[in-house]
Amino acid sequence: MAQQLTRDEVAKHTSEDDLWFIVDHRVYDVSDFIDAHPGGSIVLEQVAGQDATEASYNLHRHEVLQQYTALCIGTIEGEQPEVIDQKAGDLSQVPYGEPMWLSKEFKSPYYSEKHKKLQKAMRKFVDTHIKPEAQEKEKNGEFISQELIDKMAETNLLDGAIEGKDFDYFSDLIISQELTRMQARGFQDGNMAGMAISLSAVLAWANDEKLKHRVAEEVLSGKKKMSLAITEAFAGSDVAGLRTTAELSEDGSHYIVRGTKKWITNGMFSDYFVTGCKTSKGFSVLLIPKTEDVEVKLIKTSYSTAAATTYIEFNNVKVPKENLLGEEHKGFVVIMSNFNHERWMMACMVSRWSRMVLEECLKWAHQRIVFGKPLISQPVIRQKIARMIGLVESNQAWLEQITYQMNHMSYKDQAKNLSGPIGLLKTFCTRSAHEIADDAVNIFGGRGITQSGMGRVVEMFHRTYKFDAILGGTEEILGDLGVRQAMRFMPNAKL
Ligand code: HEM
């Protein structure tokens, strides 16, 4: 048991080489730490022997104190720590910090006990196994370790937290949203996002059953990696403008692929590329294995290189005819139907990021003292937070409604009925993110543009939400798609 000390006892330790203070009813001896303190020694000397709770929470995230528990030598006699120590797997206690279905006061028609079990297991797995590596790699830009990939493959749906037969789109939503809580936007994509958006095309469109099963087994077991290679320097959303060509050999046994691809997430470590190519009479999609004729170069974007964003050159790569996905020259439908799930997944993630940022703003406004009062006592701050809550909750509500439809529709019908709504949903979520990021930085001030310390989540979101606004289709393209789709369902008659 930690020793019990009195406030009078603490007040005696005020010299540079014998310096104590109190934070949240706990006593810290920082005599050997003051020279290493990132905020310097002066500030610590200023609070020597005193209660520094307010000063400390005004300047640090609680996790800083959790990391330095060794400096804590005891608690104040008769007093109890009040600050909530979040443990791995815990739900947030901040209002609006979790979607409504996770708050015990509220009910939802969409989630079952099985979903709740999955969420719990996923939260714990992310907090314990993914977040520590994600935080490290986000900073140093290295790619995900094989150990982490093996760990994820090994647990096979989290050691039975959910059975394959019960896995539905709400399970998918839960996994996507929980993954964002690693709070590392580049690593989030580096964590097999390439597979998530390309394996679906192989599963739905491979003509060769053997190939389909082999690739699925290899990538789901973590032995091989894959990515989706559509965009080029020449064209992104404008798929018709792509210049990578696939020419069928005279004997019809293979294609020769030549061209380049740009911004390919996970391309640096991929063994397979689901690639959009021009063929003699249209556009076709091929599963291209990595060979010596495939050259990859790392692209540095505004998020971490942990995402492994890649420039690729296919230099006359020989690809067997069996690797064609869907029909030859009719690849447009392969890509377009695959986009739905990718865009929906991005909506899951960016909306959860927005909620994390809202949570950060609520915590900060609650504990930051300005002009002698908590920041939240300023009406202008409450207005900003009110707007954020409205956006975050409407993102989630629309997302859940669309997810429910996906659960009750075939893949084909989803392409017909939901590509418009999903495009509009993603656009709405990223426009919301734009507003939320902007207001959050204003609430955090200098910390909102600083990569470490209190504002690091807000800083990262402000720097990276644009990835969701652009990848998988820009806001302009998707807004347009949504309205054009709606017009397709308009009755011919004047109304
Ligand atoms: C055991 C107690 C403490 C530990 C372990 C600690 C640790 C840290 C760490 C790791 C940082 C880097 C920034 C971050 O990650 O948030 C930091 C920054 C800082 N700390 Fe502390 N600190 C402690 C107590 C205090 C106290 C009591 C004060 C002031 C009264 C203080 C003042 C500062 C200041 C001014 C900064 C720079 C903040 C900024 O750049 O925004 N620290 N501290």
TrEMBL record:
Gene Ontology molecular function: acyl-CoA dehydrogenase activity; flavin adenine dinucleotide binding; heme binding; metal ion binding
PROSITE patterns: ACYL_COA_DH_1, CYTOCHROME_B5_1, CYTOCHROME_B5_2
Superkingdom as given in the UniProt entry: Eukaryota
UniProt keyword Oxidoreductase present: yes
Residue ranges of every copy of the Cytochrome b5 heme-binding domain listed in the record: 2-77
Pfam family, one: Acyl-CoA_dh_1
GO CC list: cytoplasm
SMART domains: Cyt-b5
One of the GO biological process terms: fatty acid beta-oxidation using acyl-CoA dehydrogenase
InterPro entries per UniProt: Acyl-CoA_dehydrogenase, Acyl-CoA_DH_CS, Acyl-CoA_Oxase/DH_mid-dom, Acyl-CoA_Oxase/DH_mid-dom_sf, AcylCo_DH-like_C, AcylCo_DH/oxidase_C, AcylCoA_DH/ox_N, AcylCoA_DH/ox_N_sf
The protein's required cofactors: FAD
Similarity-based family: Belongs to the cytochrome b5 family. Belongs to the acyl-CoA dehydrogenase family.
Protein name: Cytochrome b5 heme-binding domain-containing protein
Species of origin: Extremus antarcticus
